[in-house]
C-alpha cells in the first residue's frame, strides 16, 4: 500500500504538473545514482551559494548578489539552475532560501531589466520570472523562506512561493506586493499566490494599496508564519524543516498536488503563460 501511495505520489504529482505544462518536471525516480552523487557537491555560482547537507537532506540556498539581491535575468537563470539541480538530487528533500546580505532578503525584480530593453529581452526576462515561480511553487522539496531582511514585490513573491515563511522580528524589515505604489500592477498569478496565502480581503487591500508590511504586521495577516530574532532565523528554519521532513514525502506531495489542482493560478497552462508574457513584455517595453 505504501508503495502504491508512493508511486501515485511520484507519478500523480509529476503527471499533474505535466498536464499543467510546468516545465520543471523533476523525475527524481529516473535519476541515475552516478548523477545523484555528483549533485551532492555543494555549489557556488556568483550570485547564489548552495550547501547541501546529505545527512539531513536539507539544502540552504543563499542569495549573495549585492547590493539588494535584485532578480535580474542572470540571477533568475542561476536560481533556476540551482533549483533544478537540487530537484534532481534524490538526497535532497528540503530547501531553505535565505540571503547573505544584511537587511535585505530580495528587492524583487531588477528594475534595470524593465527599462529600455528590446521586446525580445523583455520576453526572455519575464519567462525567467515565470520559471522561478513555477519551479519554486511546483517543487517536490519542502521549501522554507528564511527572510532575514526586507522582501518587497518579487522578493515577496519568492517567499510566498515557498511552503513556509520565517521572518526576522524586526519592524524595519518589510514585505509585500507593493507594485501599485510603483505605478505598475502585480500580474494575476502574483495575486493568486497572495490570495492563497492571506485570503481574499487581505490580498485585495494589500494589492490595491501596494502595502508593505513590517515583520509584526506581516505575521498578523498571515503573510509570514513565524517571527524570530535575527540570529535564530536559520536555526529555526532548520528545526522547522525537520518537522516538515518527518512527514513522508509522498503524503506531503500528494497534499500539495491537490492544493495545486484546486488553488493554483492558470499560469502553468501554456496559453495563460504566453498571454501573461505578451502583456508584461509590452508593458515593460512602453515604460
Ligand atoms: C511594467 C511591468 C509590469 C509588471 C511587473 C510587475 C512586477 C513587479 C515586481 C517587482 O519586483 S518590481 C521591483 C520592486 N522593487 C522594489 O520596489 C524595491 C525597491 N527597493 C527598496 O525598497 C530598497 O532598495 C530595499 C528595501 C530593498 C533596500 O533598501 P536599502 O538597504 O536602504 O538600499 P537602497 O534603497 O539604498 O538600495 C541600494 C542600491 O540597490 C538599488 N536597488 C534597490 N532596489 C532595486 C531593484 N529592485 N532593482 C535594481 N536595483 C535596486 C538601489 O538603486 C541602490 O543602488 P545605488 O546604485 O543607488 O546604490
How does this structure look, described?
- The chain has helices at 2-19, 33-39, 73-88, 119-137, 154-160, 188-198, 200-208, 215-221, 233-246, 249-263, 270-286, and strands at residues 43-45, 48-53, 58-63, 94-99, 103-104, 142-147, 149-152, 164-168, 174-176, 213-214, 226-228.
- Helices cover 49% and strands 16% of the residues.
- It is α/β, with parallel strands linked by helices and 287 residues long.
- The protein has a seven-stranded mixed sheet with strand order 1-2-3-4-6-8-11, with helices on both faces.
- It is globular.
- Strand 1 and strand 2 form a beta hairpin.
- The protein binds ligand LP6JUW53.
- The site of ligand LP6JUW53 has 25 residues, from strand 5, strand 7 and helix 11.
The quaternary structure here is single chain
Number of helices: 11
Overall pLDDT score = 85
**End-to-end separation:** 56 Å
| Percent helix range | 40-55%
User: Which spans of ≥5 residues are poorly predicted at pLDDT below 50?
Assistant: 1-39
The geometry reads as globular
> Main beta sheet, described?
7 strands, mixed
Order of helices and strands: HHEEEHEEHEEHEEHHEHEHHH
Bound molecules: ligand LP6JUW53
Strand order of the largest sheet: 1-2-3-4-6-8-11
Q: Beta-sheet strand percentage?
A: 15-25%
Radius of gyration: 18 Å
In total, the number of strands is 11
Find the structural class using helix and strand composition: alpha/beta
Family: Belongs to the enoyl-CoA hydratase/isomerase family.
Protein name: Enoyl-CoA delta isomerase 1, mitochondrial isoform X2
Keywords: Isomerase
InterPro entries: ClpP/crotonase-like_dom_sf, Enoyl-CoA_hyd/isom_CS, Enoyl-CoA_hydra/iso
Amino acid at each position: 500500500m505504501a508503495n502504491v501511495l508512493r508511486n501515485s505520489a511520484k507519478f500523480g504529482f509529476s503527471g499533474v504538473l505535466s498536464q499543467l505544462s510546468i516545465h520543471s518536471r523533476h523525475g527524481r525516480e529516473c535519476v541515475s545514482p552516478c548523477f545523484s552523487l555528483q549533485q551532492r557537491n555543494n555549489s557556488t555560482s556568483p550570485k547564489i551559494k548552495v550547501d547541501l547537507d546529505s545527512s539531513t537532506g536539507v539544502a540552504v540556498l543563499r542569495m549573495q548578489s549585492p547590493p539588494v539581491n535584485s532578480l535580474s535575468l542572470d540571477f533568475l537563470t542561476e536560481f533556476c539552475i540551482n533549483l533544478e539541480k537540487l530537484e534532481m538530487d534524490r538526497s535532497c528533500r528540503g530547501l531553505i532560501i535565505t540571503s547573505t546580505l544584511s537587511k535585505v532578503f530580495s528587492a524583487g525584480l531588477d528594475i534595470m531589466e524593465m527599462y529600455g530593453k528590446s521586446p525580445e529581452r523583455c520576453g526572455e526576462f519575464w519567462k525567467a520570472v515565470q520559471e522561478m515561480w513555477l519551479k519554486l511553487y511546483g517543487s517536490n522539496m519542502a521549501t522554507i523562506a528564511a527572510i532575514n531582511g526586507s522582501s518587497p514585490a518579487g522578493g515577496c513573491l519568492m517567499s510566498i512561493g515557498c511552503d513556509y515563511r520565517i521572518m526576522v522580528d524586526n519592524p524595519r524589515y518589510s514585505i509585500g506586493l507593493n507594485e501599485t505604489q510603483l505605478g505598475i500592477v502585480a500580474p494575476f498569478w502574483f495575486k493568486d499566490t497572495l490570495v492563497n496565502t492571506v485570503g481574499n480581503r487581505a490580498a485585495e487591500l494589500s494589492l490595491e494599496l501596494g502595502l508593505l508590511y513590517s515583520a509584526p504586521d506581516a505575521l498578523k495577516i498571515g503573510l509570514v508564519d513565524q517571527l524570530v530574532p535575527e540570529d535564530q532565523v536559520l536555526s529555526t528554519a532548520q528545526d522547522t524543516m525537520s518537522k516538515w521532513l518527518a512527514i513522508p514525502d509522498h503524503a506531503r506531495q500528494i497534499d500539495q498536488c491537490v492544493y495545486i489542482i484546486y488553488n493554483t493560478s492558470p499560469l502553468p497552462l501554456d496559453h495563460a503563460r504566453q498571454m501573461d508574457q505578451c502583456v508584461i513584455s509590452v508593458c515593460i517595453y512602453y515604460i
